[in-house]
Specification:
Elements: E1 2-9, H1 13-20, H2 23-29, E2 33-39, E3 43-52, E4 55-69, E5 73-81, E6 87-99, E7 102-114, H3 116-119, H4 122-144, H5 169-174
Antiparallel strand pairs: 1-7, 2-3, 3-4, 4-5, 5-6, 6-7
Helix pairs in contact: 2-4
Length: 177
């Protein structure tokens, strides 16, 4: 499987670069991550639980970083084993460039899967990989600039109930309340 994309992150390249090298940030951003430990120099160990189609598994794996050029680029390579579900291994080249709104992050991924996962077919695997990447970058954006989610002026267009007043799901859906 090969995949490439670009994402706009509302933070300076140095901030994005540092976040990509921090285990706590990675744990917060990788969907399904239960544990991420290690250092950029020695690599990371990760435990991630995911459901791909009908297959749910906990993957344990190692991730290594190479070709690090501070605030500009890095190469990620890793391998994870999910027991009977199979394995996944691959790598990504990540490039950061300053943009008008912060950082333009570009990535190119190449990955292989085996075991039950490989039997699901490339359409399911590719869709899952795209969804995981999109979720990771949404989480990264929210982690680096949480105020951006609410909009520039801090309002997200929704009414907020007064202190002590709670709205039920019906009133939220219908607008009645």
């Amino acid at each position: 499987m090969q995949m490439s994309d670009q994402k706009e992150i509302a933070a300076e390249p140095a901030t994005v670069y540092a976040a990509l090298l921090t285990p706590e940030v990675l744990k917060a951003c990788v969907p399904g991550a239960q544990e991420v430990t290690g250092t950029p120099e020695e690599g990371f160990e990760a435990t991630v639980t995911q459901k791909v189609g009908p297959v749910k598994a906990t993957f344990k794996g190692q991730v290594g970083l190479s070709d690090l050029v501070e605030n500009e680029t890095l190469t990620i390579s890793g391998e994870g084993k999910g027991g009977a579900a199979g394995f996944a291994k691959g790598g990504a080249v990540v490039t950061l460039a300053p943009s008008e709104t912060g950082t333009l992050l570009s990535y190119e991924v190449e990955a292989k899967v085996g075991g039950k996962l490989a039997q699901l077919g490339s359409r399911i695997i590719d869709g899952f990989a795209k969804k995981m990447a999109d979720q990771f970058f949404a989480n990264l954006q929210a982690h680096l600039a949480p105020q951006e989610e609410a909009g520039e002026d801090g309002e997200d267009g929704e009414e907020t109930p007064e202190e002590g007043e709670k709205k039920g799901w019906f009133s939220k859906v219908t607008g009645r309340g």
